[in-house]
Amino acid sequence: QVQLVESGGGLVQAGGSLRLACAASGRTFGSYNMGWFRQAPGKEREFVATIRRSGGSTYYADSVKGRFTISRDGAENTVYLQMNSLKPEDTAIYYCAADRVYRLPTWYTNRAEGYEYWGQGTQVTVSS
Q1: How far is CA 11 from CA 30, 86, 93, in A?
Q2: Three-state SS for 102?
Q3: What is the three-class DSSP state of 1?
Q4: What was the pLDDT predicted at 89?
Q5: Is 77:21 a contact under the CB 8 Å cutoff?
């Protein structure tokens, strides 16, 4: 089992940057593919990015590709989401999630139901 705690959200102007962090408890952090999702008011939870348990592979939603970067630090049991060139449509609650399933043929899933553990979320607001 793993517990996830997000931090780093806030208010930023369009074009600005934020770095989200997700701290994971437990000694099995390296056993999980990690993902970021977001949910805007009145909308469904949306996939943002995921990183493989090894850290060697990443996958992004088209809406954030080229602007967001997901990374992980095994020594710190932390996964990050660097968000650049932020847009008002990026406004949402951002959630960190952990997926322990070894998936084939593709290593990742972009479906929320594929992630077993979730953080409480951190609010990101981008003003125009």
Answers
A1: 31, 11, 12
A2: coil
A3: coil
A4: 97
A5: no
How confident is residue 77, by pLDDT bands cut at 50, 70 and 90? very high
Closest by Cα among 39, 59, 36 to 48: 36
- Rounded Cα distance, 22 and 15, in Å: 23
> How far is the first Cα of the chain from the last one, in angstroms, to the nearest whole number?
40
Whether 18 and 9 have beta carbons less than 8 Å apart is answered as yes
- 72-97 residues labelled b (16+ CB within 10 A) or e (exposed): beeeebbbbbebeebeeebbbbbbbb
- Distance in angstroms (rounded) separating the CA atoms of residues 37 and 98: 11
Helices and strands (H and E) in the chain: how many: 0, 11
55, with CB counted inside 10 A (0-12, 13-18, 19+), is middle
User: What DSSP assignment string belongs to 35-72?
Assistant: EEEEE-TTS--EEEEEE-TTSS-EEE-TTTTTTEEEEE
What average pLDDT does the chain have?
Answer: 96
